[in-house]
Amino acid sequence: MSSADPLIIANRSFDSRLLVGTGKYKDFDQTREAIETSGTQIVTVAIRRTNIGQNAGEPNLLDYLPPARYTILPNTAGCYTATDAVRTLRLARELLDGHNLVKLEVLGDAGNLFPNMPETLDAARTLVKDGFDVMVYCSDDPIQCRMLEDIGVAAVMPLASLIGSGMGIINPWNLRLIIDQLKVPVLVDAGVGTASDAAIAMELGCDAILMNTAIAGARDPIRMAHAMRLGVEAGREAFLAGRVRRKYYDADPSSPTEGLLPASHSTASQAT
What we know:
globular, alpha/beta, 36% helix, 5-stranded parallel beta sheet
């Protein structure tokens, strides 16, 4: 992505509009290769599931993805209450030497991993007051997203479809409503399955996309990381270019109509 079109989140500037998770890869080496191939600059890490220094003696993800190269985005995956989420991100801030950019995720159901919005709103209020720059995984409800913006979050991250489902964007109209009414960045989070899903999200006007399973769960994660990079870039370019207007039941020839040679008469018409 061109540096002339940066992604701005909490006064930080990024060239890439693709954010990538670090779970579900076979090992940290594959994680590093996929992250490098994707071109991402923001890497999200589940503090409850991944060692970034809290477990001494175990392999540390930061040895493979150094904070000097990547912006580490700690998240609260696995948290089901506002209290647990806030505690987790305060721990992450200590581990990352005062790092304030975080992803809030408060789940409501272990089966579908849908967000618990009352708990999410509660946690967001506490974290913003505590000085965090909060990016929030949330439902694709325009009203809830506006409430999050009013709280002062850095970005909203409505799901396209259920986490890990690969079903793509279920309700593009809700996403457009959210994009059109909010001033903070809007990122699709969850549900992307392939590069065309990423392109569609960006064509709708999303500022960026966060994904994990779509890359890590692919038959060839490294190749899919490259495909997703291209999908995000193509979708953003198409959005900026502006698509041709849809005209239903009304064709418009793509070639000029002036100066055409006269149509030849058919044999039948000549015979008459």
